[in-house]
Write a structure and sequence with these properties.
The protein is of the alpha/beta class and 362 residues long. 43% of the residues lie in helices and 12% in strands. It contains 16 helices and twelve strands. The strands form four sheets. The protein has a four-stranded parallel sheet with strand order 2-1-3-4. It has a four-stranded parallel sheet with strand order 7-5-8-9, with helices on both faces. β1, α1 and β2 form a beta-alpha-beta unit. α5 packs parallel to α14, α5 packs across α16 and α8 crosses α14. It is elongated, with a radius of gyration of 24 Å.
């Protein structure tokens, strides 16, 4: 993450705690955990000071030499943290409309400059979202940087508890959750609902996506590529075709259709009735080219084995897609990100890049 050092008072010799914090911060840049940005005057003061190691002074000199490159980074990120070198402690609570700001005392403990924690419901989600971050990095031509995050397994319903634990320990953290919504007007699932009313700290940020699940963000072209390569069984070709037919009728269904399990007839009818909003009932009759037995046509099923409007790709869909992504070039991936997903990938990717960006050169 970009850590911007502000309010330098030209006093590096007589403040031991400031010296320790600055050493930790500069080392975090050297270790490719964060990016340090400051005025030229601060970098020059570090170069000239005898209180810092040769390693730190060399880095300050390198950052001075590459100052123009550093100055281009803020316009590519959605968030950074200001570190006030004139205040040891500041309020850790994020104030609406104000920049994220911490006192230098936050970084006296070397643990505080560890790479940003990236908390999701499970590690598979972390891996997938990292590809979205890399997509954004390529879109904004930030190839001199890398995304370096510490993946954290939320454990599904335990995600809020794990988030709270990280915050109590003053750990920098980005948390991304899906909504588990099955309908545009539906309720969030318990995991994301637990974050209602949670206020960000100056060193943390949580995002609840509108999507039902991480799989909602998978481009259909990428699923097709995984089918062709055999990573997803060819037995799911019919499922793929059915999904396409649904999305042709209403592209918003990509956000709410369960890609792993598909959609049961009764579940579609019941959620519309409960919410008094006909969403699936408006979509399903207009979908052509999918098998429609009596239950699907009537949107009512009494069969022992519940009928489905469309089947799903199975629980290992995301794992198969990650395997495919590992073999897909950035240019090829870009060709799969169509208009219906581009804004989501760009916005989510920008957040991930912003909280995880680090230098790849020093």
């Amino acid at each position: 993450m970009l850590l911007k050092l502000i309010n330098f008072q030209d006093d590096l010799e007589d403040n031991e705690y400031l010296e320790i914090a600055l050493t930790n911060l500069f080392n975090s840049h050297l270790e490719k955990k964060h990016i340090i940005f400051a005025t030229k005057e601060l970098f020059q003061a570090v170069v000239s000071s005898n209180v810092f190691s040769r390693r730190v002074r060399n880095l300050a000199e390198y950052l001075l030499t590459n100052y123009r490159e550093l100055r281009a980074i803020p316009e590519k990120i959605s968030a950074y943290i200001e570190i006030d070198l004139n205040l040891q402690q500041v309020d850790l609570n994020k104030q609406e409309g104000m920049p994220r700001r911490l006192g230098y005392g936050f970084f006296i403990d070397s643990e505080s400059v560890h790479r940003t924690n990236f908390l999701c419901e499970d590690l598979m989600d972390c891996n997938f979202y990292k590809f979205i971050g890399d997509f954004y990095k390529n879109e904004v031509d930030a190839n001199g940087l890398v995304i370096n995050l510490e993946f954290r397994n939320g454990g599904g319903s335990g995600t809020k508890r794990n988030y709270d634990e990280l915050i109590r320990n003053n750990k920098m953290c980005l948390c991304i959750l899906d909504s588990d919504k099955k309908h545009p007007y539906g309720a969030k699932g318990d995991t994301s609902l637990a974050f209602n009313g949670v206020a960000d700290k100056n060193f943390s940020h949580h995002i609840v996506l509108e999507m039902h699940e991480a799989e909602s963000l998978i481009p259909m072209g990428l699923i097709n590529k995984a089918l062709e390569s055999g990573k997803i069984s060819r037995a799911h070709v019919a499922v793929y075709d059915s999904f396409l037919r649904v999305f042709e009728v209403d592209a918003t269904a990509k956000k709410y259709l369960d890609h792993k399990k598909g959609l049961e007839v009764n579940a579609a009818a019941e959620i519309d009735e409960r919410l008094r909003r006909e969403y699936w009932k408006n979509i399903i009759p207009r979908v052509n080219g999918i098998p429609k037995n009596r239950c699907v046509t009537r949107l009512e099923c009494e069969c022992r084995e519940p009928c489905k409007v469309v089947a799903g790709f199975g629980d290992r869909l995301l794992a198969h897609i990650i395997e495919e992504l590992e073999e897909t070039s950035p240019r090829k991936l870009r060709s799969f990100i169509k208009d219906d997903l581009y804004d989501d990938w760009f916005t989510i990717g920008k957040e991930i890049f912003s909280w995880g960006c680090a230098s790849n050169k020093q």
